[in-house]
């Protein structure tokens, strides 16, 4: 029997990921899309084809075998799963790609499994331009058999690589995502400081960018710095609102403090 997939969350990342799923995953059945703002899901469905829009979370989950979610923040994740867990979800597989702290991921995984379903936590690394190109790095964690079921939708579809945490508790994937976000934020901070330094010393940001573009192992710096000096962060829709990024930073620092780690940067 053909697998029916649903995707919850049509933000910038969700749009890029679902476009690749529809275009590259050889789905036998149309991809079910759900988003809190239904109009966005409808417009996106028209753009990518081979998809249909559910009006509610329950409608999306009811018809699907695999439910993939990539939601805006932890609050959206917890609220969505509170609604999902009121349903009969036996036999379904939930694949969660949002940024959530480990304890919350483990709690949701436990509740989903107790309800008779499977759960894989799979945060991703890569901003929307990489997601468009199918070059995300996926970090799945959960039961090995469950991770195996979702692998056909990863490399060659949405991802260029997988950091496989099969057999580990779901929260380990969330923890790795948080640690990766520390790398991302410190990279962005370095780019911002370098560009200001170059501008104020008279070198200019264009010359600094030439160094960044050719600096060994600086691919991530190139992406973030280019967006900064081209004004993309000013022009584009925000992937993460500043207040939510600050909230995530607070969560990271709380986790670090609890484990006696100093994150000075």
TrEMBL record:
Ranges for domain 6-phosphogluconate dehydrogenase NADP-binding: 5-155
The Gene Ontology terms for molecular function here are: NADP binding; oxidoreductase activity
Residues at the catalytic site:
177
Question: Which keywords has UniProt assigned to this entry?
Answer: Oxidoreductase
Specify the signal sequence span: none
Q: Which SUPFAM superfamilies match?
A: 6-phosphogluconate dehydrogenase C-terminal domain-like (SSF48179), NAD(P)-binding Rossmann-fold domains (SSF51735)
Instruction: State if Oxidoreductase is listed as a keyword.
Output: yes
Which Pfam families does the UniProt entry name for this protein?
NAD_binding_2
Identify the InterPro entries for this entry: 6-PGluconate_DH-like_C_sf (IPR008927), 6PGD_dom2 (IPR013328), 6PGDH_NADP-bd (IPR006115), HIBADH-related (IPR015815), HIBADH-related_NP60_sf (IPR051265), NAD(P)-bd_dom_sf (IPR036291)
Q: Which PANTHER family match?
A: 6-PHOSPHOGLUCONATE DEHYDROGENASE FAMILY PROTEIN (AFU_ORTHOLOGUE AFUA_2G11600), OXIDOREDUCTASE GLYR1-RELATED
Similarity annotation: Belongs to the HIBADH-related family. NP60 subfamily.
Recorded protein name is 6-phosphogluconate dehydrogenase NADP-binding domain-containing protein
């Amino acid at each position: 029997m053909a697998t029916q997939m649903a995707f919850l969350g049509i933000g910038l990342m969700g749009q890029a990921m679902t476009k690749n799923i529809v275009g590259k995953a050889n789905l036998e059945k149309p991809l079910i899309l759900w988003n809190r703002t239904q109009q966005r899901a409808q417009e996106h469905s028209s753009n990518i084809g081979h998809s249909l829009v559910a009006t509610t979370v329950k409608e999306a989950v009811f018809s699907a075998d695999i439910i993939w979610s990539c939601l805006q923040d932890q609050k959206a994740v917890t609220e969505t799963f509170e609604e999902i867990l009121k349903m009969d979800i036996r036999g379904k597989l939930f694949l969660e790609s949002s940024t959530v702290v480990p304890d919350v991921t483990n709690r949701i995984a436990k509740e989903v499994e107790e309800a008779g379903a499977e759960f894989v936590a799979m945060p991703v690394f890569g901003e929307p331009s990489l997601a468009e190109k199918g070059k995300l790095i996926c970090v799945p964690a959960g039961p090995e058999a469950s991770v195996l079921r979702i692998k056909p939708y990863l490399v060659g579809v949405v991802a260029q690589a997988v950091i496989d945490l099969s057999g580990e508790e779901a929260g380990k994937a969330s923890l790795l995502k948080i640690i990766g976000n520390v790398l991302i934020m410190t990279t962005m901070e370095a780019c911002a400081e370098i560009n200001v330094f170059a501008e104020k010393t008279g070198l200019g940001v264009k010359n600094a960018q030439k160094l960044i573009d050719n600096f060994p192992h600086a691919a991530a710096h190139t992406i973030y710095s280019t967006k900064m000096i081209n004004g993309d962060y000013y022009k584009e829709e925000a992937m993460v609102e500043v207040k939510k990024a600050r909230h995530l930073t607070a969560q990271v620092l709380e986790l670090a403090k609890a484990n006696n780690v100093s994150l000075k940067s």
